[in-house]
Amino acid sequence: MKTVTLDEAQATLPTLVDAARAGEEVVLTDSAGAPVARVTAVEASARPPIRRIPGEVRSRPGWENFEYDPELFRPMTDEELIADGWDADVIPTRLAFD
User: Fold this and answer.
1) Are 91 and 81 in contact, with CB atoms under 8 Å apart?
2) What does pTM read for this prediction?
3) What is the CB-side half-sphere exposure of residue 36 using CA atoms within 13 A?
């Protein structure tokens, strides 16, 4: 185990990271010599990444008959925004493609 002060660590951080990658543990100390941090390598995750498959949700119980409703994602009208609590002065102006 290697021990270095914070000042030394600031000057030699790339070297310390390389040492950690190689499996060495580096302890950082303050000016009084008290340990404040440890630099170690991060272990690779044992869990494989999640692979998402389009339409997979429909195979789960309760989702077999799911129907997408485009009305859910329709832009709100100015009246709906005001009714929802928006101040009329801060409602964004409509974009050219609206």
Assistant:
1) yes
2) 0.45
3) 12
